[in-house]
């Protein structure tokens, strides 16, 4: 089974600086084709995340001006974090229990990536296919 570290090797990490407008952040999400971005300060410390869900619940539904509203004012600050050495199953359990679709991954207190539920489900499907192939070969071996 693949590890969290192996999953992150194939993914880019994008961030947005604190103080950016919602408009700039949404444009960045669209440009990078991502659904969530960490918001960092000048030192690289993660202050929160901004997601499509934040846009809908905290900006659009409240009729806020996307050109004037700072992402810091509408981002999610209560973060669920995974450590780089956690198993994919542990990450999936955290995501399920907290009803989230993305989890930030840290290594020695430094942000190293983001795992989506899609990443973990694809990993499960891959593992199931391998198991099926092994069982198939075992059953039908001549």
TrEMBL record:
SUPFAM superfamilies: CBS-domain pair
InterPro entries: CBS_dom (IPR000644), CBS_dom_sf (IPR046342), Diverse_CBS-Domain (IPR051257)
Pfam family, one: CBS
Origin superkingdom: Bacteria
Keywords: CBS domain
Domain CBS: 8-66, 75-130
PANTHER family: CBS DOMAIN-CONTAINING PROTEIN (PTHR43080:SF2), CBS DOMAIN-CONTAINING PROTEIN CBSX3, MITOCHONDRIAL (PTHR43080)
Protein name: CBS domain-containing protein
């Amino acid at each position: 089974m693949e590890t969290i570290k192996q999953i992150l090797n194939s993914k880019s990490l994008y961030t947005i600086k604190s103080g950016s407008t919602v408009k700039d952040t949404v444009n960045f999400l669209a440009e990078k084709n991502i659904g969530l971005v960490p918001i960092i300060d000048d030192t690289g410390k993660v202050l929160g995340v901004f997601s499509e869900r934040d846009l809908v619940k905290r900006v659009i539904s409240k009729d806020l001006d996307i050109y004037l509203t700072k992402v810091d004012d509408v981002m999610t600050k209560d973060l669920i974090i995974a450590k780089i050495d956690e198993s994919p199953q542990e990450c999936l359990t955290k995501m399920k229990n907290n009803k989230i679709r993305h989890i930030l991954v840290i290594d020695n207190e430094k942000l190293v990536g983001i795992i989506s539920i899609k990443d973990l489900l694809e990993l499960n499907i891959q593992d199931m296919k391998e198991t099926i192939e092994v069982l198939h070969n075992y059953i039908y071996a001549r």
